[in-house]
Structures are given as structure tokens and as C-alpha cells.
Amino acid sequence: MQMLVVAIVLSICGLLSSFILIGIFPSIISFCLSIYCLSKEKTINTVRALLMSLVGILVPIIMYLNTFGLHLPYDKGEGYGTFKQILYDNYSNFGFDMSFMVKDYKTIDEQVAATAATSDDGIYYVSDGVVQEEAGYNEIVTTEADSSESSLDNSKYPESIFESFEDIEKEYETTAKSTEIGASDDDMPSYGGLPVGTLIVAQYFREDDHNCNPVLVLQNKTGNLCRYECMFTARDKDGNEIATSERTSEVVPDGAKFVIEGRFDKSELGGTLPSMYEFTISKRTPYEKDVTEDVCVYTKIDGNSVILAAENPTSLKVKVDAYVLFFDGDELVDCIWLIPSNKDEVCITPGSVATIKGDAYYRFDRIETYYTAYEAVETR
Q1: 120 Cβ neighbours under 8 A, 6+ residues apart
Q2: pLDDT of 67-112, one tens digit each?
Q3: Do the Cβ atoms of 286 and 225 come closer than 8 Å?
Q4: DSSP for 255-316?
Q5: Nearest in space to 191 (alpha carbons), one of 247, 131, 126
Q6: pLDDT bracket for residue 343 (50, 70, 90)
Q7: CB 322 within 8 A of CB 369
Q8: Planar angle of CA 368, 369, 375, nearest 5 degrees
């Protein structure tokens, strides 16, 4: 009888404390005691203790899987240990404000205000993602932000896109899962200048057999609709220019997150990787009409590929620029630029759904998708 009382008390304590993870330990003890008591005498109280202790074990396991999946703990770029990372991710997903866990926490608007205070000409400078007083590279030990929380793949989609997606999938052959492991190279040094009100959400570096490309995930917090232009410069260890790459994001609404990827062919770099990247980003008023809020974009993993579908319910011809980022754990292993379009078109016609498939070379376990959508203007 005394052992049953101990099992019940431990099961209650374990269940209550399981929501901060530590409850798994008393729950395991209670579970073992409950099984022993159940083998001696089958009573309703023994079953209650057994079930409560089982829940106390499952809750921390589910919280762990929700954070790291079927992986060992890894650094998600937010500077937390395993325990804090699990609590932060799970309770943030439930809608709780966990900003008190972030050291020197600043809201997005406070970050914008801070960068504005450092700039007299509308440009502020960063080195490895950290705001600097002047242009140039300064080696800083820092961590990357995690862009996944705000990507398209954590959004909800209208049911209409799912109704036709099963038929769309049949048009493509499923690619086998890759076993190739991407290079661990996201610590490539970088520095550059950005317009005030434009934030770096995350930055990565992608390398394969042919390319070595810097990837920036940015957010427009200027309060305006913007066109962004970026000049990437690859430099050697002495700071000399090796090659340049110009990229554009045509139409970015206020508050939107978007991707700019520099593209460098290794053959143009003499077969050697740059020692660092410089980027210069500018903005201006776009030419095209923004229709991001009107278009629905959906991505689905298919083997080692992704199928992207875009639905255009408007009366306009629409151009969609989508970037899909492929991750293995917290390592970016691929980045694919996809432009869905109808047959014989370079855009999505009114009232139609366009699809496109992108194949990743390396193995991955999750994706992030970002897109912009704007009216397709015909040129003569």
C-alpha cells in the first residue's frame, strides 16, 4: 500500500513537472512502481498512477521531437542549450511570449530603430550579421538567426490548393532520397551594407560541385513596398575582388521576408573558395504591382525533390519568384530558385495553378520557402 501511495505521488509530481521536462524522471520511477504494484494487485488507483506516469514520460519526449525531430540535439543558431531550446520552441509555438529567455532581447521595431541611429546616409553596416559603425569586415563570434519560424512552410494554406494538388503530383516522377551529405560551410565570413529598415533574418553559404553561393534571408521593415538590388563580391584572403554577382528581388511588401542569393561559378573562381563575401544592398520603388497577398503558394517534399504550386485567383498575369531552402539539421545544403508558370508562358495566367519541381542533390530533412508575387508586365 505504501508503495502505491509513493507511485501516485510521484506520478502527480511527474505529470505536473513534465511540462518543464524534468518531470520525466519521477514519471519513469512512478511508471516502474506502478507496473510492480499492478502485478501484485489490480486496482483503479494503480491504473491511474500508471497512466499519469506514462503521460509524464510522453510529454517531454513529444516536446523534444517537436524541437529536434529524430535528431540528436544540435545548435539551432539561437544560443540556447538543449533544455532552454526545447522550452523556447514549444511554448513559442503555443503562442506564449518567450522573449524573456532571449538575452538583450529587442523587438523588430527596436532593431530597426537601433540601426537607424547608427546611420546618417540611410545605410547601416554589418559584419557576420552584427551591426558595425563602419564598412568592412570585423571577425566576430556570433550565431545565426533561425529563419524557419517565419517561412512559408509554417503557414496555413487554403483548402482549395490541396484539392488539385494530388493530380498535380502525378505529373512528376518521385526522386529517390539522397544519401549525399552537404558541406558544412555556413560559417563563411561576410560583411556589407543594408538600407535602414532592412533586417538580416539569417545568412548562409551554399557549396556544391559547381557553385559557392552566399544566401541572405532578409526582412523589409521600411514601411514601404520596395525593390531590392544586391551586389555580391567574392574576395580572397587579402581582400582582393575575385568575382561579382548582381541579384534583384523585384517587389517586396512591407513586413515580408525574402531571399537574395549570390551566384558564383567555381570555374570563374579558379576552383578555389573565396575567403569572404561582401554585399551591398540598395532599395527603390518597384515598377510592378504587388500581388503577394492574392497568390497562394504551396510546397511539398517528394523524395529528394520539392514540388511547388502557385494559384493565381486574380484577373492579372502574375510572376512568382520562389526560393526553397533545403536543410539537413541546421545546415543549409541547397537553395533552389523556382518560377512556376503555365505551359508556353513565363507567368501564371489568371485563374490558374502553375507548378514546378526542383531537385536537391544532398540529403535534407526540412525546407523553408519564401516567395514574392507581382504583376507580369509584358515588354515590347
Answers
A1: none
A2: 888 778 876 655 678 888 888 888 877 777 776 666 555 554 555 5
A3: yes
A4: T-EEEEE---BGGGGTT---SEEEEEEEEE--SSPB-TTT-EEEEEEEBTEEEEEEEE-SSS
A5: 126
A6: confident
A7: yes
A8: 170
Q: Does residue 77 belong to any structural domain of this protein?
A: yes
Give yes or no: residues 17 and 127 share one domain. Answer: no
Q: Distance between alpha carbon 261 and the CA centroid of its chain, in Å?
A: 15
Do 27 and 118 belong together in one domain? no
CB atoms within 10 A of CB 13: 18
Considering only residues 178 and 341, tell me which one the structure prediction assigns the higher pLDDT: 341
- The residue out of 284, 304, 329 marking a domain boundary is 284
Residue 364 counted as domain residue: no
Q: pTM of the predicted model, to two decimals?
A: 0.61
- The number of folded domains in the chain is 2
Residue the block writes with cell 544519401: 179
b/e map 69-97, b = 16+ CB within 10 Å: eeeeeeebbbebeeeebbbbbbbeeeeee
Domain for residue 380, yes or no? Answer: no
Identify the pLDDT of residue 94.
77
- Report pLDDT for 238: 86
Mark whether 97 and 198 lie in a shared domain: no
Neighbours of 316 (CB within 10 A): 19
Bin 66: left if φ > 0, else alpha if -120 < ψ < 50, else beta: alpha
Domain of 256, in residue numbers: 108-141+181-284
Same domain for 127 and 271: yes
Does 359 map to a domain? Answer: no
Q: How far apart are CA 125 and CA 196, in angstroms?
A: 9
